[in-house]
């Protein structure tokens, strides 16, 4: 569900807490996931920033607020500009229609939140 009042710092902190529990309860699965994430996001033929933009658009298409929070946070740390973010969100809207437009608005809100904190 899209919500203009989402606080992405709170969302990512809350999910991170629960991920600690999962890492303790199912360590092999979570280690595998972490290894996969590191392998998939490292610089290669595509830059880490490009890969994070792709991940963000997939999170938008999947209507995943936590995904939006984590990937926008990473993109801000990587120096992504608002224009770069918006172009990627344009692709998410193109491919996902109206529902993706609603979550693209959430992603823009997350970007504004995380850039204000820097």
UniProtKB/TrEMBL annotation:
It comes from the Bacteria. Coiled coil: none annotated. Pfam families: CMD. Residues 27-109 form the Carboxymuconolactone decarboxylase-like domain. This is Carboxymuconolactone decarboxylase family protein.
């Amino acid at each position: 569900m899209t919500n203009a009042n989402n606080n992405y710092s709170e969302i990512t902190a809350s999910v991170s807490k629960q991920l600690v529990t999962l890492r303790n309860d199912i360590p092999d699965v979570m280690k595998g996931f972490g290894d996969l994430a590191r392998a998939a996001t490292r610089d290669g033929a595509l830059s880490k920033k490009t890969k994070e933009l792709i991940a963000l658009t997939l999170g938008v298409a999947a209507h995943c607020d936590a995904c939006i929070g984590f990937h926008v946070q990473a993109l801000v740390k990587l120096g992504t500009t608002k224009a770069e973010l918006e172009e990627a969100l344009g692709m998410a809207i193109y491919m996902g229609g109206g529902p993706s437009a609603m979550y693209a608005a959430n992603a823009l809100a997350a970007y504004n939140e995380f850039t204000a904190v820097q």
